[in-house]
Amino acid sequence: MTDTALGTVAEPDGAPRLLNLDILRGIAILGILFMNINDMGASMNASFGDFRHIGWGAADQVAWWVREVVASGTARGMLEMLFGAGMVILTERLVDDERRWAALKRYYWRNAVLFAFGLIHIFILLWPGDILHSYAIAALVIFPMRNLRPRLLVAFGLAMSLLQLAGGGMGYVDTGQSIAAYQAAQVAQAAGRLLTDEQKAAVKLRAERTARLANSAKQVATEDAQRSGTAGQWVRWQWHQEMAIQGKGIEVFIIWEAASLMLIGAALFKLGVLQGSLSARWYAAATVTAYLFGFAIRIALAAESVGTGVFPHLTQALYEPGRIAMTLGHIFLVNWMLASGTGARVLAPFRAVGQTALSVYIAQTVIALWVLYPPWGLALYGRSGWAMLMLTAVAINIALAVAANWWVKRYRMAPVEWAWRSLVAGRRLPFRRGAAFEAPEAVAIG
Fold first, then answer.
1. Rounded to whole angstroms, how far apart are CA atoms 250 and 376?
2. pLDDT, position 12
3. What sections of the protein cross the membrane (predicted)?
4. What is the pLDDT of residue 197?
5. Residue 440 has what pLDDT?
6. CA distances from 110 to 99, 101, 262, 358, 382 (A)
7. Which terminus, N or C, of the chain has the lesser number of Cβ atoms within 10 Å?
8. What is the CA radius of gyration of the chain?
9. What phi and psi values does residue 411 have, to the nearest 5 degrees?
10. What are phi and psi of 131, to 5 degrees?
């Protein structure tokens, strides 16, 4: 399938849109909710700690396994790659018009506005898991690399991503040695022998780990209490979560991860991979290859996560290779499906979601954090396990997909996109279909 098989459209601000990229974006933005809803409707601390706290009945276990193996991290991976593609589309068009300075100013201003929207999402709409501000920063970081050849973009992106492999591998070895030393220390203590320095260090590490686990459990209990209390407690806790993320330096890793896949996405767009320019046979082979690698890693890591006891974990080392493989598998599968008329018809509803992705993303937050789970809404926080949370995400996404398809038939842009593009363009853009508009001097890609 070629990149023109689905056609292109232009936004009211002149931005070109490749509709098959919109389909990928639509699938990705709906997939984001499956990653977020457990943090919205249950403990965020439990999601990254004792995930069984959220619910661990038979249905919950099935839901968690499917989410962990098939979906975890892949929706944001697709969005990160599409951000990289958007950078190429925007800057190549402007550079071709010999407006390099205009491209620089427009691109940075576009992401500055997106960053501001992210802050509103965090502090006004109360979602500490916002990705907009992080992606805006990452997009600015990689901008100077936009003109590199695809081979170099892939090399830099993979090098950044796979640094976790080395660090995680060292952690695996260190943990194994620590466990062996701790077991030896227990034998020595039982025999009344003095401990070696290595054994003393292992005992200390075990005590620290036990303290961290206890503190994690305390954090989960505190979060449950705060988010099940008054409206004021809910708001303060959401802000507290954001400050905790910043205080622990997690933001740096989020930006690093996003930047790495943006570079890979830019390369894949230049090679024609993202927009479906290669043959159906190529996408079929690529899908199978990516999934074989991705599923093998993800199943092993999920099984490791549900294990009990203290033992070395490969999660930190292999999570990112597995995530990239599964993300690519999803992208290849979509383009493979789009190579046939049946597949294109099945995926067609996602086009509208991709065209309204920013508004859909914000709507997910409004529904979850302002209607379903807060104390001033239905107050359903903590009442759903993994299975019910995933079913709720399905229901919300179906409603939003229907709304998106209804909207694009009547309006040129969704509300949040309209506000963003109008601010970037420096003028009020037409909103309804049928309204005339003038082609701007510079364009942007959504």
1. 30
2. 54
3. 18-37, 107-126, 132-148, 153-173, 253-271, 283-303, 323-340, 352-373, 385-408
4. 80
5. 37
6. 16, 14, 16, 14, 38
7. N
8. 23
9. -130, 150
10. -110, -15
Q: How far apart are CA 378 and CA 145, in angstroms?
A: 47
* pLDDT at 370 (0 to 100): 98
Residue 207, judged by CB atoms within 10 A of its CB (0-12, 13-18, 19+), counts as exposed
Tokens 């001033």, residue?
A: 376
Gap between the Cα atoms of 295 and 134, Å rounded = 28
Task: Give, in order, the Cα–Cα distances in Å from 304 to each of 55, 301, 385.
Answer: 18, 5, 21
Q: Which token pair is 200? A: 């003393």
- The span from the CA of 237 to the CA of 222, in Å, is 10
Looking at residue 15, what is its pLDDT? 57
What confidence score (pLDDT) does residue 305 get? 85
325 contact partners, CB below 8 Å, separation of at least 6: 290, 291, 293, 294, 297
Q: Where are the alpha helices (DSSP H) in 248-379?
A: 250-270, 280-306, 315-338, 341-347, 349-355, 357-367
Ordered mean pLDDT values, 10 residues apiece, the chain (446 residues): 43 66 97 97 90 96 97 96 92 60 82 97 97 96 92 94 64 60 77 82 75 83 96 96 90 94 97 95 98 95 77 71 96 96 95 97 98 97 97 98 96 95 92 58 34
Name all contacts of 230-238 with Cβ < 8 Å and 24+ positions apart.
Answer: 230/375, 231/374, 231/375, 231/376, 233/375, 234/126, 234/374, 234/375, 234/376, 235/126, 238/126, 238/127, 238/128, 238/369
Cβ burial of 373 (10 Å; 0-12, 13-18, 19+) is buried
Q: Specify the amino acid at residue 81.
A: M
* pLDDT computed for residue 161 by the predictor: 86
Q: Which two tokens stand for residue 235?
A: 């708001």
Per-domain residue ranges of the chain: 8-159+234-425
Confidence at residue 99, expressed as pLDDT on a 0 to 100 scale: 63
C-alpha span between 89 and 265 (Å, rounded): 12
**Structural tokens at position 233:** 């407690």
